[in-house]
Amino acid sequence: MIIVGVGAGPQMLTAQAAKAVEKARLIYGSKRAIDLVIEHINPGCTVRVIEDYKKLHSLPEDTVVLSTGDPMLSGLGYLKGTVIPGISSLQVACARLKISQIKVVPITVHGRSLDSDAIAFELRRGKSVFLLTDDGTNLPGLCQYLELKGLHRDVAVLTDLGYPEEKISRANTACSPQAPGLSCVFIGEF
Fold first, then answer.
1. Calpha distance 126→172 (Å, rounded)
2. What confidence tens digit (pLDDT) does each residue in 59-112 have?
3. How do 26-29 and 64-67 pair as beta strands?
4. Staple partner for 33: which of 17, 58, 66, 127, CB 3.0–4.6 Å?
5. Predicted confidence (pLDDT) per residue in 1-38, tens digit
6. What is the CATH number of domain 2-87?
7. Residues spanned by CATH 3.30.950.10 within the chain?
8. What is the spatial distance between Cα 183 and Cα 162, in angstroms, rounded to a whole number?
9. CATH 3.30.950.10, domain 90-188, yes or no
């Protein structure tokens, strides 16, 4: 199996990833991932939208599985096979905000529980925290918790990275911005 990172948004597919998609005879991916690579899919290729992520491990060896962003950042890189990385939302967000990735600790809360103590720990160490959030993430509650711990920090919410509707909202933990749907959130000193 080949797990291909398709990038965080349009035109963020690497040349190596594009070649893997062009050679593929069977592709699985989310609708969004397929849309990001559609121009590279050859006419004879079978393309299927992933309906059950738990069954991906049983796909044929020559299958290309598309993962939005980079498969190793909250993606499908856990699957057995070769991983071709993509341009991740972390890379794009750091570029937009001009933050060195060396100073960043990525944490995903997309589909997971928010660990406010772990975030506070990283902020106390002088790191910025990059969060992949979803509608279940209580960003105002996290910011309030950080304020109570004396960790007043800048907050930036980035949505639709790479798309024409890309938006960056800046605030701080005393007055957090909204983080709708799937968002990237930076908390730190920047």
1. 16
2. 999 999 999 999 999 899 999 999 999 999 999 999 999 999 999 999 988 778
3. parallel
4. 66
5. 999 999 999 999 999 999 999 999 999 999 999 999 99
6. 3.40.1010.10
7. 90-188
8. 13
9. yes
